[in-house]
Each structure stands twice: as structure tokens, then as C-alpha cells.
Amino acid sequence: MLLLLLGILFLHVAVLVLLFVSTIVSPSLAIPSFPNQVFLPPEWLQSVQATMVLSVIFSVLSLFLFFCQLFTLTKGGRFYITGFFQILAGLCVMSAAAIYTVRHSEWHVNTDYSYGFAYILAWVAFPLALLSGIIYVILRKRE
Q1: 143 occurs within a structural domain
Q2: Which residues cross the membrane (predicted)?
Q3: What integer best gives the mean pLDDT of the chain?
């Protein structure tokens, strides 16, 4: 049981690290001719950033709830709340990556740009977050 909990905890922390890195690493937006001007990103890019931040918040909340439920849940109980928030974090990542996939060509007119590693990390974090959420829902507390 201890190895199972450590494995689930390792998976959750790995998802959390992937979400942090893919959220924090973003290209700095600047207009080359006016370097001191503030560039407001398009609304769809702001929605991508907001949903990624929401996914990090939901995943951290899920980890906190896991520890709370680990000590307060009765024997035989399931980690429904923890799983719900982790699945919600995975769905936020999916929606952010999907919006970025659809709108990427509008932002980068030049085709020399690639999606970047943060985009790939977000797509890797999506199934892992869903998997850990499903594991939390299935998991029962034992002594």
C-alpha cells in the first residue's frame, strides 16, 4: 500500500511539475520597433494562459486535498474530491492546448515557428492528469 501511495504521489508531482513548466515558460512578447511598449496579447492567448493557471491551481488543490483526505477519510472511503479536481485540471490543460492549436496560425504568420516545448509538455500533462484523477477516484483507503 505504501508503494502504491508513493507511486500515485510521484505521478501527481510529475504532472504538477509539467504543468508548472508549461505554464511558466512562455515567450516574451515584445514589438521589435518599440521595445519599451507593452504588447497586449490577443484575447485567445489570454484565455490559454488563464486556463493553464487554473489547471495548476486545481492540481495543487488536488494534492492538498489528497493529503487531507489521506488522514481524515474513513477506511474504505474513496478519494472522489481529489480525483474530481485532478480531472478538472486535466480538462483545463486540454482546453488550453486545443485553443492554442487552433489559433496558433493566426499569431505566427511565419511558418518558421514551432509550437515549442511548453506546448508539448502541456499535451503530455493532459493524459497524465486524467490518469491520476481516475486513479484517485478508483483508489480506496486502507489501513
Answers
A1: no
A2: 46-67, 79-100, 120-139
A3: 84
